[in-house]
Amino acid sequence: MTSTSDQSSRKADGAIEGVFRAEWGRLLALLVSRTRRLDLAEDALSEAFARASERWPEKGVPANPPGWLYATAYRAIIGQLRTEAVAGRKAPLLAVRPDWEPASDTSDELPDERLQLILLCCHPALPPVARSALALRLVMETPTEQIARLFLVSTATMAARLTRAKRKIVLAGIPLARPVGEELQARLDEVCRTIYLAFTAGYTPGEGPDLLRADLAGEAVSLAALLHQLVPDAAQVRAMLALLQLQHSRRDARQQKGRLITLADQDRSLWRRDEIRTGLDLVASLVPTEGYAEELRLQALIAAEHAIAPTAAATDWTAIARHYASLEARTASPVVRLNRAVAVAEAFGPRAAFPLLDGLDDTLPGNHRVASIRADLALRAGDIELARASYRAAIDLCSNDIERDHLNARLDTLQTAAPSTS
Amino acid sequence: MKYFVLLAGYGELPAWDDLTAEEQEAQMAQLGAFYEACAARPGVEMLSQAPLGDGSMATTLRTRGGEVIITDGPFAEAAEQIGGFYLLDAPDLDTVIELCKVLPAYDIDIRPVLEEG
C-alpha cells in the first residue's frame, strides 16, 4: 500500500517537475498575453503549480497537465479582476472577455507567446540590469536566489530589482508586442546583448564555492537555445547561441581546486565534445552579415578556432588575430584591441603586439588586464624589467582576490627565476 | 492608459530661437504631423497639450523650514529646456513611443498618469 502511494506520489512529482520546466514560460506568456496583467499572472501560475503539487499525488495527474494549470491560473486571474472591479477599482489593462475559456484538450493547442514574453522582459524601457534577470525569472523560472547568485548580489537586492521591473511593466503599460521587420531585429539585438550579459555574469569570478557559476550561465544558454528555437532565422540569435555553446563547453576545465585555469592551461579532455559539435554546426551555418549579428559571428568564429585546436600550441592564432582585427574595425572597442594584441603576440611574436597596447592604459583606465598582458608580452620578449614593473602595476589595479593571487604568483616566479637582475 | 509626454529638451537640435524661419516652420509642421498621427491612430486620443514658456519665464517656489521662498526659475538646470507637454490616451507604451518618433528629435520623457484606485 505504502509503496503504491509512494510510487504514485513520485510519479506526480515527476510530472509536476517536468511540466514546470517545460511549460512555465509558455503558460506565463500565454496568461500575460490573454490578461495583460503580468503582476497577477505570475502569482496565479505559481499558485496553480502549488495546487497541482498538492492534488496530483492524491487524485492523479490530469489528462492534460498544462491545460489544467492554465485553466486554474486563468480562473484565478479572472477572479482577481472581478474583485478589483467590485471594489470599484478600474482595471484599465483588462482586455479579456471574462467568459473566455481556454482549450483544455491538448497542450499543442496552447499558442506559444514566449518570444513576446522574452521581448517584454528585454524592453529598452527597462533598466539593463533588470532585463536578463527578469527574462530568467519569468521565462526560465530560475529561482530569484539563483539569479542573485549569478549576478553576485543579495537575494533581497535581486528580489527588489525584479519587483521594480515588473511594477514598471504594469504601470508604464509596456505591452506584449509583436514587432516585425527592422523593429524586431533591433529588439532581438537587445535581447542578445541581455542574454550575453547574463552568460558572462556566470563566469565573472566570485568568492569561495561561487568562484564561477557555470550552472547559472547554463540557464542563459538554455534561454538562448529557446530563443533560437522560436526565431530560427534570426542571424544574431543563431550566432549568439553558437558563441555561448562553444564558450560554455569549456566550463569543467575552467577551474580547479578553487583556482581559475586559463585557456592555454586547460585540460582539453574536459571540454564537452557534444556541445562543441553543436556549436560548430551552428557556426558553419553562419554567413557574413551586418551589425550586431556580425559582431557575434566573428566572436563565434574565434571561439570555434579555440574549440577545434587539439592543443593550445596548435591554435590557429593567425586566423584568430584576423577575426579580432575585423571585430575591432566594427566595434572600435579597446577590449577587443586588447584581445587582438594577445592573438597577434601568439601569431607573430610579442614585439608585433606591443604597438597595439599603446593608448589602452588611457582608454581602459583601471583595467589590470592591460598591465598584466603587457607584463606577459615583456616576459616573452625577454624584457624582465618591464615585465616586473607591469606585473606590479597590474597587481595595484586588480580588485579580484583570486586574480591578484595569480598575478602575485607570476611576479614571485619572476623574482625567483632571475634574482640577479633586480 | 493616459500618458504625460514631456518635451524635456532640444537634444541635438538647436534651440528654438536659433532656428531660421524655415527651420521653425519645418518643426511646426512636424508638431502638426504628430497631432494628425495621434488623431489617425485607433485607440489614441490627445486629451490636452500646451507649449510652455522657457526657463527664463519660470518661477520657482520652495518651502524650507515652513517658509515659502520665491526665486527665479527653473528649479533645476535640466528643466531649462522644457518646451511643452501632451496628455495622451493610448493603449500602451509602445504606441506612444512610436507616435513620438514623428515629433522633432527632442529629448522626451514619457510618464504614465496614475489612475486613482
Structure description:
- Helix content of chain A is 69%, strand content 1%.
- Chain A is built from 19 helices and 2 strands.
- In chain A, α4 (114-121) packs antiparallel against α5 and α10 (235-248) packs parallel to α12 (291-308).
- Chain A has helices at 2-35, 38-59, 65-86, 114-121, 128-139, 144-150, 155-171, 181-201, 214-230, 235-248, 273-284, 291-308, 317-331, 334-348, 350-357, 360-363, 368-381, 384-397, 401-417; strands at residues 255-256, 259-260.
- Among the domains of chain A are: 2-96; 366-422, no CATH class.
- In chain A, β1 (255-256) and β2 (259-260) form a beta hairpin.
- By secondary structure, chain A is mainly alpha-helical.
- In chain A, strands 1-2 form a two-stranded antiparallel sheet.
- Chain B has 117 residues and is an alpha+beta fold.
- Chain B has a single domain, classed as Alpha-Beta Plaits (2-Layer Sandwich).
- In chain B, the strands form 2 sheets. Chain B has a 4-stranded antiparallel sheet, covered by helices on one side. Chain B has a two-stranded antiparallel ribbon with strand order 3-4.
- Chain B is flat, with a radius of gyration of 16 Å.
- Chain B starts with a strand and ends in a 5-residue tail after the last strand.
- The model of chain B has no long low-confidence stretch (mean pLDDT 92).
- The chains are: A mainly alpha (422), B alpha+beta (117).
The gist of it:
The complex is a heterodimer of chains A (422) and B (117). Chain A has helices at 2-35, 38-59, 65-86, 114-121, 128-139, 144-150, 155-171, 181-201, 214-230, 235-248, 273-284, 291-308, 317-331, 334-348, 350-357, 360-363, 368-381, 384-397, 401-417; strands at residues 255-256, 259-260.
